[in-house]
Design a protein that fits this description.
Layout (H helix, E strand, L loop, with lengths): L1 H49 L4 H47 L30 H10 L6 H12 L4 H10 L4 H10 L11 E6 L2 H5 L2 H12 L13 E6 L11 E3 L2 E3 L4 H9 L3
Parallel strand pairs: 1-2
Antiparallel strand pairs: 1-3, 3-4
Bound molecules: FE2/S2 (inorganic) cluster.
FE2/S2 (inorganic) cluster (FES) binds next to helix 7.
Length: 279
């Protein structure tokens, strides 16, 4: 498929060049010939005014010039459509090639070998949760439904996510129902229902960072950390990868933050290096 795409892009590119050459040549020839044709017709018009026997010659010349111009216009229109089709085909094939070869980071050549993952990390089991924190929290904040958001906020701050066991305990100790817990925790974006890694990596996907390659950086970090599709944390729960809006330092785009420490003007390779300092 890659060879086919490469051949296709070559042929389409050659056709684009050919069409441009034809149009350019036509333009040059026509712009040189038009004044000469106009001069001949003007002279014949003068002669016809003086001698009517030149009229057929004038008519024939006008017919020839008009026919030639119409023929050129028709040909140029056809070539222009061919040019559009060839350019579209070229872009289509080129897109296929870029996909096959992996996207290049902006402004830099892709290094021969992307950095290998740091080491394989075994999955770790979550430690048993100490729910005495929740008991104390409920006694401090209250048992009414109005305590739902403060309770969830405190649980999130303590555990760094909302563990199911802690939420169950909240429901046991308060008037808050599981449905209310589920609704509140899914409504507010800051609440997480799954455990986070030891280090939080926030990759900015604001406009400046997006156009500077934030997508390639995120993909490379996911590959580097071996984060499975559909998840945001590696198996050893060392790193959680989060895509966030503008971090407020657009002049450094593309930017990421590791545990609140910013690193800017990144490439996919240097983004991985930024994690090594922490790992
Ligand atoms: S867009 Fe990334 S820091 Fe502003």
């Amino acid at each position: 498929m890659t060879i086919g795409a490469r051949m296709g892009s070559w042929i389409a590119g050659a056709l684009v060049g050919l069409c441009v050459a034809i149009l350019f040549t036509d333009y040059v020839v026509a712009s040189r010939r038009a004044p000469a044709d106009d001069r001949v017709i003007k002279a014949l018009q003068q002669q016809t005014k003086a001698d009517a026997s030149f009229a057929p010659k004038l008519a024939a010349e006008q017919k020839r010039v008009t026919g030639a111009r119409l023929a050129r216009k028709t040909r140029d229109n056809a070539v222009a459509w061919g040019l559009i089709a060839a350019a579209a085909a070229f872009l289509w094939f080129a897109k296929g090639l870029v996909k096959k070869d992996k996207p290049l980071p902006p402004g830099k050549r892709w290094q021969a070998e992307p950095p290998a993952p740091p080491r394989s990390r075994p999955a770790v089991a979550a430690p048993a949760l100490d729910l005495s924190f929740v008991d104390e929290l409920v006694s401090q904040i209250g048992r009414g439904k109005e305590a739902a958001i403060p309770l969830l906020g405190a649980i999130q701050s303590h555990y760094r996510y909302l563990p199911d066991e802690a939420l169950r305990r909240v429901c046991e100790l308060t008037e808050i129902t599981p449905a209310e817990i589920a609704g509140t925790s899914s409504f507010y974006g800051q609440f997480r229902r799954s455990p986070v890694g030891q280090h939080m990596v926030r990759v900015c996907h604001g406009t400046a960072c997006h156009v500077s390659g934030a997508r390639q950086i995120t993909e490379e970090l996911r590959r580097y950390l071996a984060i499975p599709d559909g998840e945001d944390t590696d198996a050893a729960r060392l790193f959680t990868l989060d895509e966030v809006a503008c971090l407020g330092c657009c002049s450094l785009a593309p930017v990421l933050m590791v545990d609140g420490r910013a690193a800017g003007k990144l490439t996919p390779a240097t983004a991985c290096d930024a994690l090594k300092v922490t790992a």
